[in-house]
Specification:
210 residues; two-stranded parallel sheet; globular
């Protein structure tokens, strides 16, 4: 939709293959999505001990990040980050030991089917840097839940109404909801933020003109 091709910052996503085609951005994997996959494996395959360990490891990293932010720190020490990354590698090694790659069948074309569990392990190994980015850069969120919450309102609106009656109405609604969402994220009460803009006090909203 013309957004990602021109974006040059950090994107937090659910590891959908198409997102990795954007080379001019820094990728970060949404850990909430990973936790859901790990929970599914742990519940349906109790013998996969690595899944529980990896889930606990992700949550430990999150706690370390939250603790650092609460203490007013801008970053974690290199020693701490490397410690968590080494533990990451140990769990991935254990995961492969529990899920050996099947030997290819002779005279059978195509790649050997890996299954959902092994596919997840492969992703965790391949995109280790993107998974751990929230730990290295404290400004990067642990998940993209906030973005999904922002979109949910729009989806609910279209489901209730069936559709927007005109493009102009849709654009006005999107603009208003975008403004309200941004106001809340910057600590403003949305009602008073809109009231200030309507009264011409644009320099008091977010410190810039609107």
């Amino acid at each position: 939709m013309g957004v990602l091709p021109d974006y040059r910052g950090i994107i937090v996503h659910d590891c959908w293959t198409s997102y990795w085609k954007f080379n001019d951005v820094t990728h970060s994997v949404c850990c909430a999505h990973l936790l859901r996959e790990l929970n599914g494996i742990a519940e349906n395959h109790p013998e996969q001990a690595w899944a529980r360990k990896f889930k606990e490891h992700l949550l430990r990293m999150k706690r370390a990040k939250d603790k650092a932010i609460a203490a007013g720190k801008d970053y974690l020490s290199v020693f701490t980050i490397q410690k968590y990354k080494r533990e990451y590698d140990v769990i991935i090694k254990e995961a492969y030991a529990q899920n050996p790659i099947a030997e290819p069948v002779r005279k059978k074309r195509g790649r050997v089917k890996r299954g959902k569990i092994l596919a997840l392990i492969d992703r965790l190994k391949k995109h280790k840097g993107a998974v751990c980015l929230f730990l290295e850069k404290l400004g990067v969120p642990f998940d993209n839940n906030q973005a999904e919450r922002d979109i949910r309102n729009i989806k609910t609106k279209t489901k209730v109404c069936g559709c927007f009656r005109s493009r102009t109405g849709a654009e006005e609604y999107m603009g208003l909801m975008s403004f309200i969402s941004t106001a809340r994220k910057n600590g403003f009460d949305s009602y008073h933020a809109v009231k200030m803009v309507l009264s011409g006090q644009t320099n008091q909203v977010f410190g810039v003109g609107c």
